[in-house]
Design goal:
Blueprint: E1 26-27, E2 33-35, E3 38-39, H1 40-47, E4 51-55, H2 56-73, E5 78-83, H3 90-98, E6 102-105, H4 108-116, E7 124-126, H5 133-142, E8 145-148, H6 151-161, E9 168-173, H7 202-210, E10 215-221, H8 232-250, E11 257-259, H9 277-294, E12 301-304, H10 308-311, E13 315-327, E14 331-336, H11 345-349, E15 355-357, E16 367-372, E17 381-388, E18 396-400, E19 420-425, E20 428-433
The chain binds ligand LLP.
Ligand LLP is lined by residues 83, 85-86, 104, 127, 186, 188, 223, 226-227, 261-264, 305-309, 345, 349, 405, 409.
């Protein structure tokens, strides 16, 4: 059996979300896998495993594709934001900001990370369905825009900032009532969602906001879900959000930003076939332009906030193969030195992944194995029944498309330290996240004296 098909599909140079592997992936003359000019097994040796690897070039190409597509297809102003929940670090923030992206954050932690990455407050947007006073105040002081999600946000802001001299910039998130086909847990646009104002509340809300001199409503936001392969839901969203935008204008609010959220899907396995960044932006731009034209509306500043499609396929995780258990006639398990604590997506969403051996990526598959994590949980399985060429203990396993929602959703289950992270580019691998040590995990434990 030829192993090639498992992780190779036609390379899309401009839309990395359509590839399984980072765009700089090569095989060197010894048949070993190289990304960003770095041989993966060598960096595994140098930094240890599990190791998150981020290909700088793939992230930059994705950013450039979003910006170029917006320039080509949208005649008004635009500002793409990076949804930093996908993978938040100072390095990642700095990288996307250097390409011209603003940042979407959902917590004080992500906000501080964006500020430390050098992003100015006016380019930061704070989301969240239950923002704390601390988060609201940090956003306010930093001059970030607060995306109000419910009345609680407004009440807290009223108390915290209404007596201060500087007004707060607000965007308003509403639930657009649009269904899309994705995992139940990552849908957000349907009416039964915890996020955003219900459409029925909007008239009263726009009216209420007129009386708040301390708040300036600068835009409207909606997000319908994540890992979406269809283009129609976003086309429909353009119509619904433009209608809401018009309503805000009717009440006299100086809205100028229209944010259609994130959601573009990526390839995890060969059979995934997401649209390209260019097609996604083209469809949205065309739909927004048309919806505005019909209503005689000047084109708003168009915003979107991709997370996954910017970083998923730029990332991969390296593991070392360890224990093997063969159950005759049933299954062979090979365990790795990580698992659900560094990648909780398989156990949470039954997500599929693709993998190969770092030093024998093209060898013929001769064994079907199941890659198990090392955690005390039977469901801690990273990949089920996949083909590998004579996998041996000590081999380095590469799992592709782990750049989004792996590191950011990682945990310390079983008190397992989080992996290190490196960024690779032009033959250099540099640390962007230090490896936790077991003793670090005791840092916040407190032992009451009486014990
Ligand atoms: N904007 C808002 C308001 C969001 O809630 C999200 C994702 C995004 C943008 C970015 O969406 P993306 O472009 O990444 O699809 N943990 C799940 C994904 C949760 C997505 C949450 N919101 C996973 O691992 O699949």
């Amino acid at each position: 059996m030829d192993n090639k098909g498992q992780y190779e599909c036609e390379l899309d140079q401009k839309s990395p979300n359509r590839n399984l592997a980072p765009i700089t992936t090569e095989i060197d003359q010894n048949g070993r896998l190289v990304v960003g000019g770095c041989q993966l097994s060598s960096i595994a040796k140098r930094y240890g495993t599990p190791l998150y690897v981020l290909d700088e070039e793939s992230v930059r190409v994705s950013c450039k594709s979003y910006l170029e597509a917006l320039r080509t297809h949208y005649k008004g102003e635009s500002l793409p934001l990076y949804a930093s929940k996908a993978n938040s670090s100072i390095a990642m923030t700095k990288l996307v900001a250097s390409e011209g992206f603003g940042i979407d954050v959902v917590s004080a932690g992500e906000l501080l990370t964006a500020l430390r990455g050098g992003v100015s407050g006016e380019r930061i947007f704070l989301h969240g369905n239950n923002k704390s006073d601390q988060e609201l105040l940090i956003a306010y002081e930093a001059d970030a825009t607060v995306v109000i999600d419910n009345h609680h946000d407004l009440e807290r802001l009223k108390e915290l900032v209404s007596k201060r001299t500087k007004p707060v910039r607000l965007m308003l998130r509403f639930t657009p009532g649009i269904e899309c086909h994705t995992h139940e847990y990552i849908k957000t646009g349907h009416l039964d969602s915890k996020f955003g104002f219900d459409p029925d509340q909007l008239d009263a809300l726009f009216k209420e906001l007129i009386d708040y001199p301390w708040a300036i409503l600068t835009g409207i936001h909606a997000h319908i879900g994540s890992q979406i392969f269809e283009l129609e839901p976003h086309q429909d969203l353009a119509e619904v959000i433009t209608e809401t935008f018009c309503l805000a204008k009717k009440y006299g609010h100086p809205v100028q930003d229209m944010n259609i959220g994130g959601g573009l899907g990526v390839r995890y396995v060969v059979s995934d076939d997401p649209p390209s960044i260019q097609d996604w932006i083209r469809v949205i731009s065309t739909a927004v332009t048309k919806a505005c034209k019909i209503r005689g509306l000047q084109l708003p500043r168009l915003m979107c906030e991709p997370g996954r499609s910017l970083v998923a396929t730029a990332g991969l995780t390296l593991y070392t193969l360890g224990a093997k258990k063969s159950i005759p006639g049933l299954r062979t398990y090979i365990s790795v030195d990580g698992g659900m604590s560094d990648n909780p997506r398989p156990i949470t969403y039954q997500s599929l992944y693709t993998c190969c051996l770092a030093d024998r990526p093209l060898d013929e598959t001769d064994e079907i194995v199941t890659i198990a994590g090392k955690h005390c949980e039977s469901g801690d399985i990273l990949l089920k029944d996949i083909g590998l060429p004579k996998p041996l203990s000590g081999d380095i396993l590469v799992v592709f498309s782990t750049g989004a929602y792996n590191n950011s959703m990682s945990s310390n289950y079983n008190r397992i330290p989080r992996p290190a992270g490196v960024i690779v580019n032009a033959g250099h691998a540099e640390l962007i996240q230090k490896r936790e040590r077991p003793e670090d995990l005791l840092m916040y434990d407190v032992l009451p004296e009486r014990l």
